[in-house]
Amino acid sequence: ISTPLPLPKHILDVWVIVLVILVTVVIMTSLVLCPATAVIIYRVRTHPMHQGAV
């Protein structure tokens, strides 16, 4: 005759930690990739491939 208990506190803490880690990873990757893609697009537009050379 056990009543259904809510989620234990430690499980919620683990989920909070996982979400914080995922958010920080997404923010760091966006901070790293956005300037990189901007630089690549700028270089491709200002210095096009000469005579179709790869």
Automatic annotation (TrEMBL):
Q: Which UniProt keywords apply?
A: Membrane, Transmembrane, Transmembrane helix
- UniProt-listed Pfam families: Smim3
Q: Which InterPro entries match?
A: Smim3
Highest taxon of the source? Eukaryota
Q: Any transmembrane segments, and where?
A: 14-42
Q: Does the keyword Transmembrane apply?
A: yes
This one is known as: Small integral membrane protein 3
Q: What organism is the protein native to?
A: Varanus komodoensis (Komodo dragon)
